[in-house]
Amino acid sequence: MKPNLRIGLFYLTAILSLANCDRFPRDNPIDPANTNEEKPEIALVEQPTIDDALEYDGWNNRNGMAEPGETVRFMVELMNRGGKTATGVSASISSASDCVFSAAVRGTIGNRAPYGDIEPGEISPLPDVASSFYYEVVLSTDECVGVDTVRLSLNARDSTAKSWEIPLELEIERGDADFEIAQDGIRIEDDLALSACNNNNRRIERGEKIHLVIPIRNTAVNSYARNVSARLTSSASECIRFPEGDEDQSKRLAYGDIAPGALSRATDQPDYFVVETLKDTCPVEGQQQLSMLIEDVSDRSRELPFGMTFFRSDVNIAYYSHSIDDSPVYLESNDDDGEADPGEVVRFAVVLVNNGRTLARSVDLVVDNEQDLPSCISRLSIRGADLESLSYGDIEPDTRSVSQADGGYLEVVLSQEQCSGEYGEEIVLRAMDGCRSEWEIRVPLTTYLSAS
Q1: What is the second-level CATH architecture of the domain 317-448?
Q2: Between the N and C ends of the chain, which has fewer C-beta atoms within 10 Å?
Q3: Arithmetic mean of pLDDT over the chain
Q4: 317-448: same fold as 179-310?
């Protein structure tokens, strides 16, 4: 029987084909066009996602965006697009951009990230950034302003010293942190101890020295505002002063970090602005404009105007009543009848009342030495040891008060010649408070003068 040559030739062809099957192209699950049967080919899987956690740097704001001045960290996955195992893969990072202050691998020795062996068609495992190596890029505060994209270079190499330059890009954002004054949270403190003009009514009036507590809000959706500080300014120098700052600016207060959407007040001790309002040049009432200049760690600044409402001082000191002492002790001819008669020397006790709704501070009663006295009065004076005024102290709203001057009194010497007949004139005095506000006090004489 003759051998079948066709069958033998078929078997021979099949054996040869199987023996050389490695020379035929195979499908590459990543990119068939880049398949290389003879060598590895390391490439980037995707551009990095950055982490700008607060603890990395004082400039960070934890919004997931790279911004000027921040220190950002990230990981990248590498894949082997070739047909041969890449052994001992490691990578370093660098940048020629002025926007990048430094770029380095952290968490490992030698400033190279160890990826190990990467099989053909496989992606390197992604280490946990918190527990293994990571890339760290410090962005310049000044050089990154106006920059949209910064280019980095990843230098990968394997154990055979074959290397690949892999481009990376970081998008530079400005962030969305912004501020507003929480008007409903502003607090005015005009405690009595701060100034003689203060009355503790938590309103702004002329001549007061106030502590102003101003909360501010970060209106951002994502961005932390870091190391926020603020100062007050005013163009109304004729009315408002900042005694602890410069001529037209308050001292700067630190507000610290403010989370997105959160409200913060100053973290300084003390945590308030000190503002003085000038008594003689401030309006009696109405609005005065101030501005709050807010800055954060990225040199982002915002000037927010706001109004301060001045209220009319609600103190009204007036005459209420008086009594007369015409004891013979003062003058032998006095008749001690409680009335002011011609020729007598009498002492007046004047009762004052505060008809306002605000505490009157340090009220004094004084004689106006420049006034023309009624013709019936020879002399009008304050008597007592070194006294120039009669002190009434603080007078509460709707409260009457008598002089608290120890040994002091108002003395009236009545003329014998000029006081014959009825008189309808008044003694005119002045009441003053600690804020130098004045009220005219008119004490009637008619009732107490006898006709002769």
Answers
A1: Sandwich (2.60)
A2: N
A3: 83
A4: yes
What is 32-171's CATH topology?
Answer: Immunoglobulin-like (2.60.40)
Average pLDDT over residues 46-72: 85
The average pLDDT across 172-193 equals 87
Alpha carbon distance 150, 144 (integer Å):
9
Q: What CATH number has the domain spanning 179-310? A: 2.60.40.10
Report the C-alpha gap between 63 and 222 in whole angstroms.
Answer: 5
Residue 127: predicted pLDDT: 60
Q: Which residues of 239-274 are buried (b: 16+ CB within 10 A; e: fewer)?
A: bbbbeebeeeebeebebebbebeeebbbeeeeebbb
The CA–CA distances, whole Å, from 90 to 39, 46, 76, 144, 275 equal 17, 17, 12, 29, 61
Task: Quickly list H helices, 294-436.
Answer: none
Lowest mean pLDDT among 59-73, 127-141, 424-438: 127-141
Question: Is the pTM for the entire model greater than 0.90?
Answer: no
Vertex 307, ends 304 and 313: CA angle to 5°?
A: 155
Amino acid, single-letter form, for residue 348: F
Domain borders along the chain are 32-171, 179-310, 317-448
